C-alpha cells in the first residue's frame, strides 16, 4: 500500500509543476518557461470578473430576468419555483450529511469560473463550461471557438463528448439534459439553440451526471433527487428508467472504458455496479459514507473509488471468471503527512476526484484541502502486473493561491499522459507526463524529452526512496 | 394471419410459446388487479373497518369467482388478438383517407366488435363486483301508488356501465389503429423479463388511469346526447319499463353524480389495466432476445442457424430477432464472434461470415435504393414528371411490407433496362385498370409528394403534357427518371389498406412490357382521370382527406429501420473486432464492400434529411400504450450509421487508406478519419 509519506515533497515558493520526464516531475517558475514540442493545448484563463454576471446566484437581480411577456401569475410562479429550488438545495445541504452534488457544489463554491471541462475522446478538442452558463469549445484545428448558449442551459454540472462521433456533446443542466451537435467544420461562433437536443423526463432534474457508453450508442444520466437513472437512446429521444430500491437518487455515473460495467453512486453510503449486458446490478454498501469519486482502469477490470470521510483509495477488481470481487482492498493511504523542509508543508485529506490516464500508468488524485492546507494533486504511477499497486510519482502544484478544482486526462496523448487541470483562479493548464507506455511498442527506445531540465535541489533524497519502491 | 407462416419453425416453436406464457402470466395477475379494483371501487372513507371486511367477503363470494373466470376468458381473447395482430414493422398511413380505410377495414371491424363485446363483459363483471345500485339489469320499481305498476324496472346504472364498457372497448380498438398499438418495438437495452415488467407496471397503471379518464369524458358527453337511444331500445326489447321517478342519466343532474363518475372511472381503469397488462406482457415476451446458434454440427438444425435465419424473409419477427442477436453477439460475446470468423472444416471457406455480411449488406443497399428512389421522386417534383408514377406504384401493390425488403434488390436489374422508358403512363394505367384495382381515388394512398391534390399547378402542367407525351418521353435523358422504379414504401400503405401488415409474402412478378398499340385509349383514359382528379381537388373535404400527412412518407420509408440499425451495429462491431480477432482475415475481403455500402447509405441518408419534414421531430405523445418509437427511427438510423463508420475508422485508422474504394468514397472516408463529419 502506498502512502503520501513516500512521495517527493511538494514544491514550495511559487514553483509550478511543468511536466514529467525521466521519472521526475520538473518544475519551473512560470508556465511558459519550457519549450513545447507537440501540439500545445491552449492554456486558458477565465477570470471570474470577465464573465457576465447574469447567472450568479444573487437573488436581487432575479426579477429582471423573468420573462416579462408572461402574465403576472406565471412570473410569480416562476419566481416561487426558483426560490423553492434554492431553498430545497439549502435544506438538503444543511440537514442531509450525505448530500452530494459532488462537482455541483464544487462549482457552486463560486471561486472558480469553470464549472466543467471535457476533452473530446478522439480529437484535440475540448469544451469548457463557464459560470455564466455558456460553453466554449476549443479546437486545435480551427481558430474559432464556438460559444454555446441555450435558454435551458443553466447550472451546468457535467459534460461529456459522445464517443465515435465528431460533434455531439451531452450537457447536464439544471432542468434537463442537452445534447449539442456542433458541426466541427462550421465557422459559426454562436451555434443556434436549434443545434441542441433537449432531453427531459418528468422528475428527472437536476441532472448532475452524464455518461456515454464507450460504443456511443447509449447515454446514461443521473439526478440526485430521482431514484431512477435514465438510459437514453439520444437520437430517438426515448429513455428507459432503471430503478432499484435504496440509495435515494444517483449522484454520479461512470462507464467503464470497455463498456461492460457502469458505476452508479448514490447520495447514501451505497453504490451500485451495473453490468451493461442484462442491466443487473451489484450493491456495494460502504460503511463510512457515500462514494465520493471513482474511476475505472482503462481495461475496465478495476475500479478505484474513495469514500467520504476516509482518506484512502479502495480498489475493486472485476473479472468474468470469478464472478466478481467480494470486498474492496485499500490500495493507497492519503492521510495527512507533513513534509519538513524550509517550511513545513502538510498534504493529504479526503479525495475530491480521481482520474486515470488512458494508458493506465498514471493516476491523478485531487485531494481536498482544509483550512490549514490547500487542495493538491497527487500523481501515482500504477502497475497492474504481477499485482496491482500504486507507486508514488509526485505532487502537481500550480500558481500561488490557486487550488485545483477539476482534473482530467487527455484521452489520446501520444507521448505518455497529459493531465489537464482547472484551477480556482480560472486558469486551465496542461501537465504532460512523458513516458513510454508498457502497452505501446517501443519505437525510439527512449521517451521524447523536453529540452530544458530544471531540477529541484532537494529532490535527490527522496529520489532514492522512490526508486527503492519501484524495484 | 398466422396461416401463412404456419410452416415457420420459429413461430411454431418460439413465438407461440412466448405468447402463451405471456397470456398465462396475465391470467395469473388477474386476481391481483381484481383485488385492487374491489378495494378501490368499494372504498368508503367513513367506514374503514366495514369497507375492508366487506371487500374480503366479496373476494370470497361465488359471483366474484365467476367474474374472475369470465375475465380469464376475456384475457385469453385479448391475448389471442395480440398474437394475431402484432407487427414489428408499423404500417404508416400517408393520408387521412388511408387512415380511414384502415379503421373501416373489415378485419378492423371484427376487431372492434369483439373488443366492444369483451368490454361489455368486463364491465358486467365490474358492475357485479361493485354491487349496490349497479348490481343487476333489473331493479324493483320505486313508485308504489299505481297498483298495475310492474315489479321490475330497468336499472339504468347497469346499462350505463355496460355501454361504457362497449365504448371503452371500441375506443381501445380505434386508438389501437391510430396509435399503432399492435406495433412491437424493441428496447434499447436488454433486461430480464421480470425486471422489465416491474419497471413498466407503474407506467401501465398511470396510463390506464389517464386513458380511462379521457374515455370517461368522451363517454359521458356521448351519453348525454345519445344515451336515450340505447336505453329505449334495451327497455323495449327486454320489456323492462324505465323508472320515471328516478332521474334519467342523460340529464345534467343524473350525470353530475360524483360517485357514479368515480365508479365509472375506476371500472374503466380496471378494464384498460387488464388489457394493457396483457399487451405489455406480450410485448415483453415476444421481444425477448433469442439466441440463435451461429453454426450447428447437425445438418437438421442448419435452418435454425444465424446465417440461414437472417436470410429468411417471410417471418419478420424472426428476422428482427436474428439481427438483434447478431448485434448482441458482435458486441458482447467473443466466443460467438470466433464462430462467425471461422472457416468451414472441409474446404476452408468462411461461409458464416459470407452469409451474414451478404445479408446485412443486402439490407443496407436496399435501404439506399429506397432512399434514392424517394429522393428522385421528390426531386423531380419540381419538374414535370410523367403521371405514370402513381400507377407505377401499383405494379408492386400486391407485395407486402415483408417483401419490400426483397423487392429493392429485385428491382436493381430492372432499372437500367430501356424498356422502362417504354412504359408509357397510359399503358401502365390501362393494365392496372384492367386488373380492376385502379381508381382515381387510390392515387393519394401512395406517399408520393406529387399527389395531384397537393400541387394543382403541377397537375395542370402534367395534363398539358399528355398530348405530346411521345416527344416528351423521347427527350428525357435524366437518369433519375429512368431509374425511378416501383415505389417500395407504397407497399406499406397498401398493406394497411388490406388491414394486415404481414400479408401475402410473395412479391408479384414484374409486369410484362406494356404494349404500344393501346396508347390512344390510354391517353383518353388519362385525360378523364386528370379531369376527375381536378374536379375532386376543388372540394375541401376531399383535399383534407387526401392531403398527405407531413413526415409520414419519411416515417414510412424508415418503418423497418430497426433491422438496419442492428445490421449496422452488428457489421461494424464485427469488423472492429476482426482487427484483433480475425485470424484468417476473412473480414478483409469484404471490407471494401462494407465501407462502400455504408458510405453510400450515409450519402443517401444525408440527402434525405435535406428534404422538408424529414428532420422535423414528432410531437411527444403523452401517456398512451401506443408505441411511437417508429416515428424517430430515422434519427436513430442516422446516428447508428455515423457511429458505425466511426467505429470502423477509429479501429483501423491509417490502414483504411489501403482499402480499395472509389475516390469519392475515399474522400468521404477521409472526412470521417479526421472527425469532421
UniProtKB/TrEMBL annotation, chain A:
Keyword Hydrolase applies: no
Superkingdom, taxonomy of origin: Eukaryota
Annotated TM spans: none
The name this protein goes by in its record: Aladin seven-bladed propeller domain-containing protein
PANTHER family the record matches: ALADIN, ALADIN/ADRACALIN/AAAS
Endpoints of the signal sequence: none
Domain Aladin seven-bladed propeller positions: 110-434
Keywords associated with the record: WD repeat
InterPro entries given in the database record: Aladin (IPR045139), Beta-prop_Aladin (IPR057403), WD40/YVTN_repeat-like_dom_sf (IPR015943), WD40_repeat_dom_sf (IPR036322), WD40_rpt (IPR001680)
Keyword NADP: no
GO biological process: nucleocytoplasmic transport
Mapped WD repeat ranges: 250-277
A cellular component term, taken from the record's GO annotations: nuclear pore
TrEMBL record, chain B:
InterPro entries for this protein: Nucleoporin_prot_Ndc1/Nup
GO biological process, one term: mRNA transport
Locations listed in the record: Nucleus membrane; Nucleus, Nuclear pore complex
Transmembrane segments: 20-43, 55-81, 157-178, 220-242, 262-286
Compositional bias segments (type: Polar residues): 489-499
Bilayer disposition of the protein: Multi-pass membrane protein
Entry's family note: Belongs to the NDC1 family.
Reported function: Component of the nuclear pore complex (NPC), which plays a key role in de novo assembly and insertion of NPC in the nuclear envelope. Required for NPC and nuclear envelope assembly, possibly by forming a link between the nuclear envelope membrane and soluble nucleoporins, thereby anchoring the NPC in the membrane.
Name the record gives this protein: Nucleoporin NDC1
Organism: Astyanax mexicanus (Blind cave fish)
Lineage: Eukaryota, Metazoa, Chordata, Craniata, Vertebrata
Amino acid at each position: 500500500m502506498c502512502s503520501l509519506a513516500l512521495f517527493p515533497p511538494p514544491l514550495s515558493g511559487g514553483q509550478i509543476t511543468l511536466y514529467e520526464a525521466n521519472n521526475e516531475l520538473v518544475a519551473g517558475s512560470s508556465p511558459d518557461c519550457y519549450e513545447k514540442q507537440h501540439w500545445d493545448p491552449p492554456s486558458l484563463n477565465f477570470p471570474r470578473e470577465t464573465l457576465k454576471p447574469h447567472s450568479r446566484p444573487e437573488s436581487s437581480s432575479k426579477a429582471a430576468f423573468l420573462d416579462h411577456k408572461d402574465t403576472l401569475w406565471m412570473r410569480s410562479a416562476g419566481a416561487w419555483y426558483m426560490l423553492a429550488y434554492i431553498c430545497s438545495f439549502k435544506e438538503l445541504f444543511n440537514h442531509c450529511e450525505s448530500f452530494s452534488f459532488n462537482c455541483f457544489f464544487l462549482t457552486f463554491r463560486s471561486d472558480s469560473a469553470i464549472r466543467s471541462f471535457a476533452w473530446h475522446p478522439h480529437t484535440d478538442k475540448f469544451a469548457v463550461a463557464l459560470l455564466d452558463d455558456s460553453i466554449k469549445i476549443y479546437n486545435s484545428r480551427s481558430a474559432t471557438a464556438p460559444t454555446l448558449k441555450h435558454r435551458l442551459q443553466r447550472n451546468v454540472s457535467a459534460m461529456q463528448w459522445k464517443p465515435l462521433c465528431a460533434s455531439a456533446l451531452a450537457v447536464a443542466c439544471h432542468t434537463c439534459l442537452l445534447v449539442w451537435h456542433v458541426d466541427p467544420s462550421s465557422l459559426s461562433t454562436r451555434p443556434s439553440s436549434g443545434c441542441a437536443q433537449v432531453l427531459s423526463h418528468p422528475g428527472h432534474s437536476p441532472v448532475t451526471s452524464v455518461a456515454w457508453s464507450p460504443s456511443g450508442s447509449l447515454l446514461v444520466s443521473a439526478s440526485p433527487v430521482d431514484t431512477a437513472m435514465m438510459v437514453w437512446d439520444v437520437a430517438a429521444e426515448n429513455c428507459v428508467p432503471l430503478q432499484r430500491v435504496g440509495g435515494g437518487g444517483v449522484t454520479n455515473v461512470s462507464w467503464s472504458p470497455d463498456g461492460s460495467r457502469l458505476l452508479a453512486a448514490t447520495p447514501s453510503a451505497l453504490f451500485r455496479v451495473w453490468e451493461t449486458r442484462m442491466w443487473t446490478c451489484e450493491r456495494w454498501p460502504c460503511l463510512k459514507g457515500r462514494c465520493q469519486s471513482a474511476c475505472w482502469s482503462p481495461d475496465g477490470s478495476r475500479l478505484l473509488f474513495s469514500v467520504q470521510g476516509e482518506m484512502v483509495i479502495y480498489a475493486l477488481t472485476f473479472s468474468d471468471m470469478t464472478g466478481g470481487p467480494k470486498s474492496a482492498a485499500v490500495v493507497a493511504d492519503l492521510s495527512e503527512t507533513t513534509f519538513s523542509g524550509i517550511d513545513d508543508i502538510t498534504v493529504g485529506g479526503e479525495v475530491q476526484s480521481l482520474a486515470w490516464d488512458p494508458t493506465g500508468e498514471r493516476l491523478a488524485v485531487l485531494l481536498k484541502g482544509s483550512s490549514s492546507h490547500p487542495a493538491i494533486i497527487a500523481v501515482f504511477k500504477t502497475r497492474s502486473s504481477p499485482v496491482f499497486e500504486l507507486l508514488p510519482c509526485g505532487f502537481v502544484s500550480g500558481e500561488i493561491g490557486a487550488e485545483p478544482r477539476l482534473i482530467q486526462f487527455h484521452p489520446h496523448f501520444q507521448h505518455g499522459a497529459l493531465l489537464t487541470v482547472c484551477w480556482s483562479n480560472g486558469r486551465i493548464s496542461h501537465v504532460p507526463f512523458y513516458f513510454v507506455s508498457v502497452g505501446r511498442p517501443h519505437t525510439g527506445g527512449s521517451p521524447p524529452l523536453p529540452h530544458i531540465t530544471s531540477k529541484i535541489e532537494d529532490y535527490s533524497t527522496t529520489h532514492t526512496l522512490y526508486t527503492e519502491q519501484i524495484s | 394471419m398466422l396461416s401463412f407462416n404456419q410452416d415457420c419453425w420459429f413461430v411454431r416453436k418460439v413465438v407461440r410459446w412466448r405468447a402463451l406464457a405471456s397470456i398465462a402470466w396475465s391470467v395469473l395477475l388477474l386476481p391481483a388487479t381484481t383485488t385492487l379494483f374491489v378495494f378501490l371501487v368499494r372504498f368508503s372513507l367513513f367506514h374503514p373497518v366495514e369497507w375492508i371486511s366487506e371487500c374480503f367477503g366479496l373476494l370470497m363470494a361465488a359471483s366474484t369467482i365467476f367474474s374472475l373466470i369470465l375475465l380469464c376468458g376475456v384475457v385469453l381473447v385479448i391475448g389471442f388478438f395480440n398474437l394475431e395482430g402484432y407487427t414489428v414493422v408499423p404500417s404508416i398511413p400517408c393520408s387521412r383517407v388511408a387512415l380511414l380505410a384502415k379503421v373501416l377495414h373489415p378485419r378492423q371491424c371484427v376487431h372492434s366488435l369483439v373488443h366492444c363485446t369483451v368490454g361489455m363483459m368486463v364491465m358486467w363483471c365490474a358492475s357485479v363486483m361493485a354491487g349496490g345500485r349497479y348490481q343487476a339489469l333489473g331493479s324493483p320499481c320505486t313508485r308504489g301508488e299505481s297498483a298495475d305498476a310492474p315489479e321490475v324496472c330497468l336499472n339504468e346504472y347497469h346499462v350505463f356501465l355496460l355501454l361504457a364498457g362497449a365504448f371503452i372497448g371500441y375506443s381501445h380498438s380505434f386508438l389501437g389503429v391510430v396509435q399503432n398499438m399492435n406495433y412491437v418495438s424493441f428496447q434499447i437495452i436488454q433486461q430480464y423479463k421480470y425486471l422489465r415488467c416491474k419497471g413498466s407496471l407503474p407506467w401501465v397503471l398511470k396510463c390506464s388511469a389517464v386513458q380511462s379518464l379521457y374515455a370517461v369524458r368522451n363517454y359521458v358527453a356521448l351519453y348525454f346526447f345519445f344515451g336515450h337511444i340505447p336505453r329505449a331500445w334495451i327497455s323495449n326489447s327486454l320489456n323492462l319499463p324505465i323508472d320515471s321517478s328516478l332521474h334519467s342519466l342523460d340529464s345534467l343532474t343524473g350525470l353530475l353524480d360524483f360517485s357514479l363518475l368515480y365508479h365509472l372511472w375506476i371500472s374503466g381503469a380496471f378494464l384498460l389495466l387488464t388489457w394493457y397488462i396483457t399487451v405489455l406482457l406480450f410485448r415483453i415476451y415476444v421481444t425477448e432476445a433469442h439466441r440463435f446458434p451461429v453454426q450447428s454440427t447437425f445438418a437438421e438444425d442448419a435452418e435454425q442457424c444465424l446465417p440461414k435465419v437472417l436470410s429468411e424473409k417471410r417471418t419478420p419477427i424472426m428476422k428482427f430477432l436474428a439481427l438483434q442477436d447478431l448485434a448482441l453477439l458482435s458486441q458482447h460475446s467473443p466466443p460467438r464472434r470466433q464462430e462467425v470468423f471461422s472457416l468451414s472444416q472441409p474446404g476452408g471457406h468462411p461461409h458464416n461470415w459470407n452469409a451474414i455480411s451478404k445479408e446485412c449488406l443486402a439490407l443496407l443497399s436496399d435501404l439506399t435504393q429506397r432512399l434514392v428512389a424517394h429522393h428522385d421522386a421528390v426531386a423531380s417534383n419540381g419538374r414535370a414528371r410523367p403521371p405514370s408514377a402513381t400507377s407505377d406504384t401499383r405494379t408492386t401493390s400486391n407485395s407486402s411490407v415483408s417483401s419490400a425488403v426483397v423487392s429493392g434488390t429485385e428491382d436493381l436489374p430492372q432499372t437500367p433496362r430501356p424498356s422502362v422508358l417504354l412504359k408509357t403512363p397510359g399503358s401502365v394505367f390501362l393494365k392496372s385498370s384492367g386488373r380492376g384495382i385502379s381508381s382515381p381515388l387510390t392515387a393519394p394512398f401512395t406517399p408520393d409528394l406529387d399527389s395531384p391534390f397537393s400541387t394543382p399547378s403541377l397537375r395542370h402542367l402534367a395534363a398539358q403534357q399528355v398530348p405530346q407525351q411521345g416527344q416528351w418521353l423521347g427527350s428525357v435523358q435524366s437518369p433519375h427518371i429512368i431509374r425511378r422504379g416501383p415505389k417500395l414504401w407504397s407497399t406499406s400503405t397498401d398493406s394497411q389498406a388490406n388491414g394486415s401488415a404481414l400479408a401475402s409474402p410473395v412479391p408479384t412478378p414484374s409486369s410484362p412490357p406494356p404494349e404500344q398499340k393501346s396508347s390512344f385509349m390510354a391517353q383518353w383514359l388519362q385525360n378523364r382521370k386528370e379531369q376527375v382528379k381536378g374536379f375532386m381537388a376543388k372540394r375541401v373535404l376531399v383535399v383534407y382527406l387526401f392531403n398527405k400527412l407531413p413526415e409520414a412518407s419519411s416515417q414510412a420509408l424508415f418503418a423497418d429501420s430497426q433491422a438496419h440499425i442492428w445490421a449496422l451495429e452488428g457489421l461494424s462491431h464485427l469488423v472492429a473486432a476482426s482487427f484483433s480477432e480475425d485470424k484468417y482475415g476473412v473480414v478483409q475481403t469484404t471490407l471494401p464492400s462494407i465501407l462502400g455500402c455504408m458510405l453510400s447509405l450515409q450519402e443517401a441518408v444525408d440527402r434525405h434529411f435535406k428534404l422538408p419534414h424529414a428532420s422535423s421531430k414528432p410531437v411527444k405523445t403523452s401517456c398512451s400504450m401506443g408505441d411511437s418509437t417508429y416515428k424517430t427511427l430515422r434519427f436513430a438510423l442516422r446516428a447508428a450509421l455515423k457511429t458505425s463508420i466511426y467505429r470502423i475508422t477509429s479501429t483501423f485508422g491509417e490502414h483504411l487508406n489501403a482499402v480499395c474504394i472509389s475516390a469519392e468514397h475515399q474522400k468521404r472516408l477521409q472526412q470521417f478519419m479526421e472527425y469532421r463529419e
